[in-house]
Amino acid sequence: MMRRTVVLTLTAACVLGVAQQAKEVEKLAPYYPTPETIVEKMLKLGELKADEKTFDLGSGDGRIVIMAAQKFRAIATGVEFDADLWKQSTDRIKSLGLEKRARIIQGDIMKQDYAAADLITVYLLPASNDKVRPLLEKQLKKGTRIVAHDFEMSGWTAEKTEQVDDDGEGRSHTLYLYRR
Question: Which of 8, 21, 86, 102 is the Cys-Cys partner for 106 at CB 3.0 to 4.6 Å?
């Protein structure tokens, strides 16, 4: 009976630990991949240049990071907490031989350092943009560009707004360029 109690206690402690860990990383947006045509428009709007450092917040399958490294020759970092998406994007980066220019951090976007960024891309929900904004205001250097997809950063004035009426998949998009 004592052994059973210890096992149950340890099991309960493990479950509580996992639940606590899940609480610490708040999901700021559902996974909804950005069409490739929009990815390219985001990076062009952000004026991404070779060897600049770019971060994609909530990088999903890594498509923005991969295009930034492959087509724009940038040093690209994605941040993704979902283990499956992290693995999928990391494996794709390796298969394309982009490890020197691209990487995905498995972690919480709210616990990263973006001070080196020249460009930040973000496709989060409006409430999530509100949560991320103070972190970016604190960390980003003067001149850093931020491109937000579909949802504005409240409290900031967009330097440029680009409306894409059809992405090839029958949906419209709005891109917002901000500069710190």
Answer: 86
Convert the pLDDT of each residue in 4-27 to its tens digit.
444 433 333 333 443 444 445 566
Q: Three-class SS of residue 136?
A: helix
| CB 171, CB 147: distance < 8 Å | no
How many CA atoms lie less than 13 Å away from 28 in the CB half-sphere?
26
How many structural domains comprise the chain?
A: 1
Q: In what order do the strands lie in the sheet with 53-57?
A: 102-106, 75-80, 53-57, 119-122, 145-149, 173-179, 160-164
Kindly give the pairing relationship between strand 145-149 and strand 119-122. parallel
Distance CA 56, CA 149 (A): 11
Q: What is the CATH number of the domain that holds 118?
A: 3.40.50.150
pTM of the model: 0.84
